[in-house]
């Protein structure tokens, strides 16, 4: 039996909404191990919510900056379903980075033969499908079910969100063959228990899944591979970004 | 922060070699959380090692019996790379079942863009490729590298095993583009640290990965979906198996 | 023109229901060549029907034993849609082994651009999809249509079975684009003519298809490859199985 | 046991070389059932051999004409690896049409986990890969190995052909993981026994495989589906082709 | 800035209907660059429309002959959705050959995340799916929507055609997630503007797309690769075709 | 024949190196139609070259800003192989956006059965493979060949770059079956002619290909679909970006 020293996890909300950061933090604090010291941060730049490719791309520099600024964490959780910028995050630190999308899919894969992702606005379908494809698990995916919910509504209108998720999930189960449900937005975090009671199938809270997987990677003493793809960025000037963001400075990151 | 009650994990060696069971147990005990109570068992029937489809299929009834006999565990780890019988295991209990193959691939996926599986005898290539395909992650797999190593040799001849693994892994890295290595046999458990020191890329010990992921599923309070595929077996007599193995008896399993 | 000597075919029912064995035998005897001597057997151990992964895995040792006990056959037909244990069967003998699932798919492929598999209980969908994927023909599959039929009902309640198959097949044709129907259960054997009359598309009886393909392999004088994957099992003790099932004894099999 | 009436099979050589037609006929006559009446024909128009897309497309009208002219056959074998025009052949008759490419792949699939196709000139690689893809079996294919052999050389220079096939097959086995070999040209027909003796893995003679599978389809009393894709061609004039080739005349074909 | 010399484009209607040739020419003349000299031809042999594999295969020799006869064109447009014989066309000339199917898919890919192909008779679904697969873009395809429209009706009954296309396209958008529409038949050419006005999504006229892409290839000074697959046909006699169609004569083509 | 009015194309270099912008502009001006007014710009923020995911993500906001600032162009060319941020670019304008990666692959697809991408540093292999996969054309890709070349070296050291490209391309042709070569970096633009002379297979200059395809889309009067995925970004504040970059301002873009 291992004697776990205290683990530091930093959870990074992908958007700049403080209310969503607090919501994510509440879920993350509730699920993490007693030994874990967990903080939840948010970018200083970027959109209030991520609902388009444009939002996602403008969010990434601020997300990466959170990693650059954080020398304490043993591992990072990227708390936006879509895992925006995760390949770049893995380039700038050796410390494990876990995306909540991938984490939720791995957990679903261990609990059900087929699962669906239930998520926000209809327009994000293509983004969600590409995220699943990136992880490699498209074949196990029964369907992606979108809703009329904007991201910030999921945080602010919990009852309406729950109702919309129940409807979409029941369709996924009845019509698409889903045997478990992944909640495809960090704003939906915390609704898994209520939803599970209603649906009688496993419902995966992506933030919770990612926190536990990040702890696991630290316990396993694993680091991101620096062999090829995730090597530190090549040296060069990058205009319009702060000193700490220059490749030459990134070399000092652990 | 969660206050984890004590978690019980049962690790099931897939074969009937007591020495391998002890080796697996040592690795599992060393990596599990301090709060976890972990036992390692082995089937009462089946082959001394699993190196063919024939071995695998004759091992599965005994593996499933270990689950039937165990009412204490909160989750099971199936400690044979190949995850033999895991779909059936998920049918007969609601408690999470984690295969060491799938667990190692999920961990590799979080650490490297491409990984290789390094494993035993050349003849198992097809089995290993099918295991990866079942998990859905074939596209992220750089290669499967087989060796002249029999399963029990990996346990008994540690130096020769390490040497063979180094050779095969270096080929995977240099020729196939691997950026991390998954050890594709429970008998190789415990060699990851030495191998990692040599190769300078992450090396995934599948048993260790699965123990931490099983703990995570329990902490997340998740159970296997009983919606469709993993429902309890239909009622019917099954000739030649003990009472506890009859579908009518399985209904009492939690 | 070849002068066919008498060919011996052994058809192995996958379950332990004598009535189903008789039903399969009737279809197989009716379709085999006049020169063929055909016997249908069933395992001494295993479930009365195969409707879950658990059933399937507990059936396989008994199925393999039927091959071990049979030194007369020139080829084997594995008469359970799902081809349970077929890779292991190919390891323990050089004589061709034909699964009824694969045989029916090859025949369908030669008759129609797209086909559907119509089968038993809803819960077997995942098993059926994996069987098709194993054969490699998922892309040609229009759909898998499940029914409320338990396996033994297909044998016992022929009218209700026929009615359910007509309904499911008509849906497959009208909604999924199926141009031929594969009957996805050995218990449905013998219903192809009645169904074909109703549907006006080819309906493949999997047992009949496999018997003719097994004869073809014998006529072609082909044996299972022993190059790598299907080599005889490695030598080792296997606990809990009879003497004949030990790898050292399997070496005497032709 | 079925009482097979005499079956009529017409084998259609895809090219206009009489010597190749005779070679194909010899193999086909030697392998067909004693009850089968088999004739081998060749198109009246088209190339002396098929080694490019151009050759293939100019061969197809003549191949289809052979079907139009033949009201006697119960089934057709399309004896050019590439199965040229087979979809159209299936439109103009209900009688089964078996391509030698697909037949050889189905047989290989029943004998080996992975197989390679060994064939003629390097330039046909793309055609061969597309043929395998059309059948749906690319995943089971270990490799396509081309040679410097022109099609007519395979018929005329048997020793050199055998030598080239041995070399290419040994590379496929040693380097690509092939466990069986498909001979990817009708001109190679008859060399399987000699090659098998040398290689010690199953070698599939595509013509022989197709003859037996065509007999099987007739014995199974199956016809090509006329549900959608393979319906008779729509009525319309077709300039430059003989009367019998007009869609209005095709309606009289059985 | 390039000083474009006059470019000669030959558009080849795939069928022998003069009315359709005129319709295609009107669209092609309207969209080509002012500097381009464009002629539209049709085969001297072949079907009046292409609605089956049989039609397609009997059309190809005549299509290829149009290329053989044309020493003036700098590039060819193959104006039948299905791009019949395009690989052979690329073998017999170095001048670029653009199929209207592939051209329309590339254009759709640059305008929309997912698109559907809306086309003629239900029976062509399989042909259309294979055409998309050949191009490699199946994953971006939301659906193939067929209609009751025969090919020649699309040319002759413009109002009914437009109505049927609107209905099918609206279903593709609402039910399948299409974000753009490809018109899957040369006979539908010219209807894109009216359809676009109705649907409010991009509608791709395949003939127009191909003409502009063919011009682009000429402007880029690119020729078809003669490295392997598209080398000139091997020398051999081809019975039943005119002198100019013999491989020895093709060597003189530029 | 169309009477093309003057078309305005803006080519956006993905990095902030003025020398590379000039090199791209020279190629683009040389290939564009005489009627086209073409300007080449570069972002005001971002890395001097793009050789990692980090570089790519920090480049995208500046690239998108170039589109926001440009109300003149009729179409945009995104001149960085990798097409960074192209989905977001398509959200913020209706005017066509063509990536040089996708353009080069479409052109290659029309000229060769299989092609390879030859590109910069070994570490970009994963990025390049994902770009090809995003376009949907992985199956047509013979290989990705990386070199020791940094991006800026390709611009600055033309002889060494040419030598390295020749070596890598020859390997792709001889060992991987490539029949055409795509130059996988905007910095390699202009080397296609010299390379083609050496290799005797088509070499695609990605910038040139994209310019002509962008002109084609304008000539075809096509706009990006606003149906679902590429709708304008949802309204919300985005911290740390200039006024013009706010979603509310994007609504004014044409």
UniProtKB/TrEMBL annotation, chains A, B, C, D, E, F:
<dbReference type="InterPro" id="IPR053714">
    <property type="entry name" value="Iso_Racemase_Enz_sf"/>
</dbReference>
<comment type="similarity">
    <text>Belongs to the HyuE racemase family.</text>
</comment>
<dbReference type="Pfam" id="PF01177">
    <property type="entry name" value="Asp_Glu_race"/>
</dbReference>
<dbReference type="InterPro" id="IPR052186">
    <property type="entry name" value="Hydantoin_racemase-like"/>
</dbReference>
<protein>
    <submittedName>
        <fullName>Aspartate/glutamate racemase family protein</fullName>
    </submittedName>
</protein>
<dbReference type="InterPro" id="IPR015942">
    <property type="entry name" value="Asp/Glu/hydantoin_racemase"/>
</dbReference>
